[in-house]
Amino acid sequence: MNEQTQRIILAITGATGMLYVTALLDLLADQNVAVDAIISAAGSKVLGLEQDMVPEDLPNINRWFAVADFTAPPASGSARYDAMIILPCTVGTLGAVASGFSGNLIHRAADVTLKERRPLLLAVRETPLNRTHLNNMLALHDAGAIICPPMPSFYLHPADLATMARQFAGRICDQVGLHLHKLPRWQGIS
Ligand SMILES: Cc1cc2nc3c(=O)[nH]c(=O)nc-3n(C[C@H](O)[C@H](O)[C@H](O)COP(=O)(O)O)c2cc1C
Question: How high is the pLDDT of residue 2?
């Protein structure tokens, strides 16, 4: 890892959408980005259900931190990270971060990311949304976070689910300042 390497925290929580996680990690494979990861207990469960994987099967992770480990680097603003992505993000984790409740390392790292004024992206996944969810999203938007629900687009004609997930993963990268040259871009219709 050299001085130019960007370092991000990837937090995986227990919402549906684990295909986006593997898409993001595949996208970052040959990039100069070190991914330090945290996964909640529910995240591990849903990863198993949807992808038939355990966390250790996920590719291109630089380092794992236990979700209960408050001594880990992401718990401190002095650790150098460029951004944090919560993908997918449950409404439970959304609520914890919105209220400043640092109940586990994911919540604490998100709180630290906000206080250090670094990009924090929450790929919140739930439907339909109740007033509490909407209020929590607005509170975090106002606090400087990026609310980026996984909403697939169709105008680039994704051939399959993996391609669709990859396009969304690319949008996430753009949002947190990881500008990848290999992403498909809308070129207009002429
Ligand atoms: C298969 C499955 C899918 C789930 N999908 C969602 C979801 O899309 N959004 C959500 O907020 N919670 C979802 N949940 C519920 C969360 O996993 C649960 O509320 C959990 O306590 C969240 O904990 P965490 O935020 O620490 O991961 C799902 C649970 C299961 C088993």
Answer: 60
As given in the structure block, the two tokens for residue 98 are 């919105």
* Helix pair angle (18-27, 41-51), 10° resolution: 90
Q: What is the pLDDT of residue 27?
A: 95
Distance CA 174, CA 181 (A): 10
**Closest residue CA from atom 16 of ligand 1:** 14
**List of domains in the chain:** 6-175 (3.40.50.1950)
**pLDDT tens-digit map of 11-34:** 999 999 999 999 999 999 989 999
Q: Whose CA is nearest to atom 25 of ligand 1?
A: 93
pLDDT at residue 1 above 80?
no
Pocket residue to mutate for ligand 1, from 38, 46, 130, most atoms within 8 A of Cβ: 46
